[in-house]
């Protein structure tokens, strides 16, 4: 079990910490810590605060992903999906929402706007090489096997 610390930031005692809505949910839902309702016009993007900062073990990352219900019903998604929370980030976690729908969408304080999924990262060390090992695919990509 990985221990992740959430620190509620001042004035947000009423905002729930990220939580799973079902026992085996992959994502912890994030709540908007906006002081007043915020409206996104069609095509508009805004950075929405969540009211907490966090600390997780160094081999974890957290991904901020859209909620499919908001995407389907209102065209609301995360512009930088999936957003990346680095293990050494101690600032407020924020969600970059964009309205791809055709109607304005208003975010109320406390509303669930996105979800956070934790991932374990492999240890990686990079080194420069003059040659790379051959493969059957080689440099083929971007649909070279057909559609
Ligand atoms: O949706 C997001 C994406 C990022 N962050 C925070 C946590 C993350 O650790 C930090 C940096 O994010 P990222 O590496 O994606 O952005 P960057 O443009 O590379 O900024 P930096 O130079 O600060 O790494 O910003 C969020 O709160 N929400
Ligand atoms: Mg970065």
UniProtKB/TrEMBL annotation:
Residues 14-146 form the dUTPase-like domain. Keywords: Hydrolase, Magnesium, Metal-binding, Nucleotide metabolism. It comes from the Bacteria. Substrate binds at residues 67-69, 80, 84-86. It catalyses: dUTP + H2O = dUMP + diphosphate + H(+). Its EC number is 3.6.1.23. Pfam families: dUTPase. Pathway: Pyrimidine metabolism; dUMP biosynthesis; dUMP from dCTP (dUTP route): step 2/2. InterPro entries: dUTPase (IPR008181), dUTPase-like (IPR029054), dUTPase-like_sf (IPR036157), dUTPase_trimeric (IPR033704). One of its GO terms (molecular function) is dUTP diphosphatase activity. Its cofactor is Mg(2+). PANTHER family: DEOXYURIDINE 5'-TRIPHOSPHATE NUCLEOTIDOHYDROLASE. Belongs to the dUTPase family. This enzyme is involved in nucleotide metabolism: it produces dUMP, the immediate precursor of thymidine nucleotides and it decreases the intracellular concentration of dUTP so that uracil cannot be incorporated into DNA. This is Deoxyuridine 5'-triphosphate nucleotidohydrolase. It comes from Paenibacillus thailandensis.
